[in-house]
């Protein structure tokens, strides 16, 4: 490589970093200006879906069955895919809290690099490719803003495109990059003449990573590779496989190794944890219901219009690189049909249908962009198109920052007091000699504060506010919950009021139950607890059947389970004796006046009270 090409390459990478910085910097600059807080707390507040952070922390410490309680450990390991959090865990180990900021910058740069490379393979100029990659990056935000016009079709697109790409950890921030990389290398595989074996290796590696991070992508990738392979070699397909059988054997073995990693983890996983993730087995009747739903989905006029429009564009477009996105659309359909017909165990089927809609719309967008570029090129000179792409890129960046960060400012105005209260108690704990001993047992139900404790290596808790963080058995979770209520002098009526089913605007969902029991009590027209529909009230049954079977976030505890838990409340004598008690005035202890004589109050603000055992601290005096 000559000096000029090397310099151009370095300049391109610097440009990518600059563009990525312009997309994510305002949020962090605004945060550091607005709040004086602990860095881990800042990460918890500024990044989305922080529920995964305790898992990232545990995996970075190579701890896969962390119960966050001292004593006997008879639980198995966490069943959440280990490789899905591999990148996050490595970066956390290397860079600590700042790894989340670094990853946002790093992943945004990779996203832009992938799509710039894809657009260049399609045939766009470098400058247009940069603009289009920025446009694709902001699609999720764009659909959110357009949804205010409240048109059903736009609302559906908005809901589905939330999974396309965003800065949400770890999915889609990292997992979707494997998927997009697979699309890019599939295009390279299709267009190359003599280096396809090399690209097959990359594709196999990416399929293995997808299988262990977001298996919905894996099935779509398998079908995409098969379709493109046949499309590329046609009648020579079997001849190529036979000629290169050594490479194909090696790639199959590599893929089997990735599959083995997943199966070994599942084998050693805690069964109760898998249940709380919402994984369930399908009987014959449920399989029929799911197949019937799939058929109705395919026969909907919206899907037929989408399929027909995509097929028309595919027929007229001669560009092979864009055709890959049509093949992707077909692959998502085939993957969904294959999975539903083949497997009798599943979770979150809506991801398959999301992929169908997103891939179908994405092909339409790319086809329209492709023809628009041809049309514009006939009227504008290359220099004008170049300046237009610069201006358009600038507008896209300004729009994204304005739209995204306006929401950040609105959120700040609503949550300033809560965030400041959280910062105050964190600062107090950080500066207290009492908390230098990280083995002290802590009672706390605030989720953000619990994550901060875990990030800072506290591992002894009377109760966890979110069961997703630990592979505890359901029995132990129930005992800890009941013991916590009794420790706070809450009675059985208080207990019932916190676990009873709550009707929201369009579904039943008690957030406390969802956090603590996960999706053990998932309830929709496909699956209910023990598949006993008679175990629900009339209004609950009505909502179970009226809500889409893909709705996996509706939780309803059946009548027999509520009765069992209430009986267990009376019979459970488990006691907890924490060294630290933190009362959050916004959680189940909001109406509690904690007056245990063995404890004294050492911190108090508008949201939190912090108590310690009198015999363990001088601060009581």
Task: Give your account of this protein's structure.
This protein is mainly alpha-helical. Among the domains are: 174-277, no CATH class; 282-379; 428-616, no CATH class. Helices cover 63% and strands 4% of the residues. The protein has 25 helices and six strands. The protein has helices at residues 3-34, 39-46, 53-60, 86-95, 99-122, 126-137, 139-146, 152-161, 175-191, 196-211, 215-233, 237-243, 245-267, 271-277, 284-299, 301-316, 320-342, 350-377, 382-430, 447-455, 474-487, 492-499, 511-517, 538-546, 559-571, and strands spanning 280-281, 345-346, 442-443, 580-584, 599-604, 608-613. The strands form two sheets. A four-stranded mixed sheet has the order 3-4-6-5, with helices on one face. Strands 1-2 form a two-stranded antiparallel sheet. Strand 5 and strand 6 (608-613) form a beta hairpin. The mean pLDDT is 91.
Number of distinct helices? 25
Largest sheet geometry: 4 strands, mixed
Note the overall shape: globular
Helicity level, as a percent range?
A: 55-70%
Q: Which strands sit side by side, in order, in the main sheet?
A: 3-4-6-5
Low-confidence stretches: none
User: How much β-strand is present in the residues?
Assistant: under 5%
